[in-house]
Structures are given as C-alpha cells and as structure tokens.
Design brief:
This protein is α/β, with parallel strands linked by helices. It is built from 9 helices and 12 strands. The chain has a single domain, classed as Rossmann fold (3-Layer(aba) Sandwich). The strands form 3 sheets. It has a 6-stranded mixed sheet, with helices on both faces. The chain has a 4-stranded antiparallel sheet with strand order 2-1-4-5, covered by helices on one side. Strands 11-12 form a two-stranded antiparallel ribbon. The N and C termini lie far apart (37 Å).
Length: 251
C-alpha cells in the first residue's frame, strides 16, 4: 500500500506545486494522473517515488511501512519498492539494451523476471544487442518499460513514458502492464493522452493548480462535467468506444 499523509510539495523558491493532500492506494491497481501542463502531476509522481531533490516536501510518504522520504534509505532499496521512469532517459556511457536490463536485474536480487522472456513479451528481442544511445526515442521508452519489469519493484511510476511510442506498440505494452497489475504490480501513470489512459487504468485522478480536483474509478471520473473543471473554455465530449465500450474523449 502507498500512503500519503499531509504531503505538500513546494519548489525550492517556495512556490506551492502540490497543496497538502492525503491518500492511500492499494497495490494491484493502475492509477492514472491527468491535468494541464504545470498542474503538479510530475511533482506528485516524483515525490511518490522518492525523487525529491529539486522539491521541498513536508508530510509523510510510506510504501508498505517503509518511509520513502527517509534520507537514510538508499536509492537501490527504494527502487526495489517503487521505481520512477520518466519520458526521457540517458545513459552516462555506451551500453547495450541487454546490459541495461542486466543492471536492472542486479538492482533487485529478489527479481524473478527472466530477461529474455520480458524482452520477447515487450517486443524488444531484436534490440537487445543494440546500443541504447543509438535507438529512436520510442524504442528507448519501450526498453525502459521492459527495464522496469525486469527490476520488479512493487510499484512502477510512469511519467509520460508512452509519449513517443506508436499506437500499435502502445496497445501491446498496455496489455502487458495490465497482466502484471493483475498479478500484484501497482502502477501509477501520468499521460496527456486520455484515450490511452482509458484503456489502461482502474482509477483516474484529475489534477489542476496543484490540487486533486476529483478522483475515483475511471467510469466515475471521466465525464464531460469533470473535464470542464480542467478546461472550462473548451468543448469536449465523452463517448463510448464502439469496439469495447470504454470511455473516450473527442473534441
């Protein structure tokens, strides 16, 4: 379980990025974060996963009774509980995809994931012996998702991690992540693509000006009325997909 207790996030200049909030989220769920640019999504996700170097944070953040804000907690131990993956990732030296995944495996000795099997299920077997730096941005994001699975944290935090992945691969990877969520993996995902989120998440949180505007099941939250709270000057419609009945946004 993830627990936030009266957490408030400021910039180093004192600007409030996320107003005081408290919540708990159980594992084996996929929770989506959506809101305008600068609404506080990334700040909240970075704090959830202990990425707090460029923030001033008050309150408590616990992951399965482990205090994520504890300064004595090593990055390696923290990443075994919760792992943050952003939209961009650079390696400090040339490294192959296979070597990157092997490093992820070594970061969590309790991981039972098989690198070759994960590579196959995530469609990156043909990339294993390529240099990470030489791949396209979309290929890098696919590799980083596989890396997250190989490292096998209890929670995976994805911050715009699908932003450069094409439609076909996105739907395939969503399926793979949903399988793992059913087996107990907790996932937080922020994306500006509501139609992608609607295919994936159990719960959805709308965030604006550093506040959680509404949260709950995607069925309850993804409505035209709630979207007006985020974008009062825009006309948007929520409709049902003729394919699977899930809610979609058109404008």
């Amino acid at each position: 379980m993830i627990s936030f207790r009266k957490v408030k996030i400021n910039s180093l200049q004192g600007k409030t990025l996320v107003h005081e909030t408290s919540f708990e989220v159980v594992s084996a769920k996929i929770v989506g974060f959506y809101g305008p640019n600068g609404s506080g999504k990334s700040s909240l996700l970075k704090v959830l996963s202990g990425q707090v170097r460029d923030r001033e944070v008050s309150g408590e953040n616990w992951n399965d009774e482990m205090p994520i804000f504890d300064k004595n907690l090593s990055a390696k131990v923290r990443s075994q509980k919760i792992l943050y993956i952003g939209s961009d990732f650079q390696t400090p030296f040339q490294i192959s995809v296979r070597e990157l995944l092997e490093m992820a495996k070594e970061a969590n000795p309790s991981s039972q994931e098989n690198i070759s099997e994960v590579a196959e299920s995530f469609g990156i077997t043909s990339l294993l012996f390529r240099s990470f730096d030489e791949m396209s941005d979309g290929e890098k994001q696919r590799v980083m998702l596989a890396r997250g699975i190989v490292q096998s944290p209890k929670w995976l935090v994805l911050d715009e991690t699908f932003s450069k992945i094409d439609l076909d691969h996105s739907f395939h990877l969503i399926g793979e992540l949903k399988k793992r969520a059913k087996n107990g993996l907790g996932i937080f995902i922020a994306s500006h693509d509501l139609n992608l989120i609607s295919e994936m998440v159990d719960d959805l949180w709308f965030i604006k000006n550093g506040r959680i505007v509404v949260s709950g099941s995607i069925e309850d939250v993804l409505t035209t009325e709630n979207l007006k709270q985020l974008y009062p000057d825009r006309v948007v419609h929520v409709v049902r997909s003729p394919d699977n009945g899930k809610k979609k946004v058109i404008y």
